[in-house]
């Protein structure tokens, strides 16, 4: 009985490591097209939650659905990625020796091996897809540069572009603005905001100013479950949230 507009539905998820409850009856619903920020002190369970969504960690109990009928708990990591969930880790992992264009080309849906992909002639539609992503991530002018020559921020955008090549419906993004300049942060905010709508995005972020600038809906995790949800103003004035952050 999952609401039609819900893309991700975690219900009563728990997982323990050596008897320690890292996730404790977690409930989370992400709506189609939403940009949701997840915040919370260190150890709150943010990474473990992302690991459960991508199939890297299996919960001890609960259920996890993607869309109306994809049971994430019955799938392994490659199948979940193929079903349309893309994850970007904090550190960019681009192919430094390859051009920006080739980095995107390699990540195109239905990947073959590196060599057959780079040798194959792209059709018009495939070129259009790469050009569209290059424009979105603002790297059209850098497309023939080696990825190794990009700035830290540009590498992060390229990696988001590499995920987009696989046409994910849900993007999980881990602290994208760590180490970025203010200008790069603004540009990243614009990029994520422009991707929401067509994509659903779950963003784990520590930078509160950045969260405030982009998110309408924030979830605060604490001790493996949801402590508060709402706008940034609502959660920041919640006494339970204040207490947790002061204690950090
Ligand atoms: P966050 O990302 O919010 O900082 P984590 O999900 O990384 O939190 O961690 C939640 C808790 O679970 C922490 O106390 C952490 O030490 C513990 N934890 C996470 N992964 C493991 C693991 N593989 N083995 C043991 N403990 C773990």
TrEMBL record:
<dbReference type="InterPro" id="IPR051120">
    <property type="entry name" value="ABC_AA/LPS_Transport"/>
</dbReference>
<keyword id="KW-0547">Nucleotide-binding</keyword>
<dbReference type="InterPro" id="IPR003593">
    <property type="entry name" value="AAA+_ATPase"/>
</dbReference>
<dbReference type="InterPro" id="IPR027417">
    <property type="entry name" value="P-loop_NTPase"/>
</dbReference>
<dbReference type="GO" id="GO:0016887">
    <property type="term" value="F:ATP hydrolysis activity"/>
</dbReference>
<feature type="domain" description="ABC transporter">
    <location>
        <begin position="8"/>
        <end position="248"/>
    </location>
</feature>
<dbReference type="InterPro" id="IPR032823">
    <property type="entry name" value="BCA_ABC_TP_C"/>
</dbReference>
<keyword id="KW-0813">Transport</keyword>
<dbReference type="InterPro" id="IPR003439">
    <property type="entry name" value="ABC_transporter-like_ATP-bd"/>
</dbReference>
<dbReference type="GO" id="GO:0005524">
    <property type="term" value="F:ATP binding"/>
</dbReference>
<protein>
    <submittedName>
        <fullName>Urea ABC transporter ATP-binding protein UrtD</fullName>
    </submittedName>
</protein>
<dbReference type="Pfam" id="PF12399">
    <property type="entry name" value="BCA_ABC_TP_C"/>
</dbReference>
<keyword id="KW-0067">ATP-binding</keyword>
<dbReference type="InterPro" id="IPR017781">
    <property type="entry name" value="ABC_transptr_urea_ATP-bd_UrtD"/>
</dbReference>
<dbReference type="Pfam" id="PF00005">
    <property type="entry name" value="ABC_tran"/>
</dbReference>
<dbReference type="GO" id="GO:0005886">
    <property type="term" value="C:plasma membrane"/>
</dbReference>
């Amino acid at each position: 009985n999952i609401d039609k507009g819900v893309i991700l539905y975690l219900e009563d998820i728990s997982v323990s490591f050596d008897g320690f409850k890292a996730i404790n009856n977690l409930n989370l619903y992400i709506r189609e097209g939403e940009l949701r920020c997840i915040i919370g002190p260190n150890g709150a369970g943010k990474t473990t939650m992302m690991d459960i969504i991508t199939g890297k960690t299996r919960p001890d109990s609960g259920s996890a659905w993607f869309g109306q009928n994809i049971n994430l708990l019955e799938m392994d990591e490659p199948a979940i990625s193929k079903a349309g969930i893309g994850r970007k880790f904090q550190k960019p992992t681009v192919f430094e020796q390859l051009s920006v264009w080739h980095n995107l080309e390699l990540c195109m849906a239905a990947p073959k091996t590196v060599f057959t992909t780079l040798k194959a002639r792209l059709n018009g539609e495939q070129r259009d897809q790469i050009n569209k992503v290059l424009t979105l991530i603002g790297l059209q002018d850098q497309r023939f540069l080696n990825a190794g020559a990009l700035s830290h921020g540009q590498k992060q955008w390229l990696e988001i572009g590499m995920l987009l090549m696989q046409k994910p419906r849900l993007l999980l993004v881990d602290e994208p603005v760590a180490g970025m300049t203010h200008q790069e942060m603004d540009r990243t905010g614009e990029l994520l905001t422009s991707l929401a709508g067509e994509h659903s995005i779950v963003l784990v972020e520590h930078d509160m100013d950045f969260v405030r600038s982009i998110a309408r809906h924030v979830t605060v995790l604490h001790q493996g479950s949801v402590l508060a949800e709402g706008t940034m103003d609502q959660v920041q004035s919640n006494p339970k949230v204040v207490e947790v952050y002061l204690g950090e």
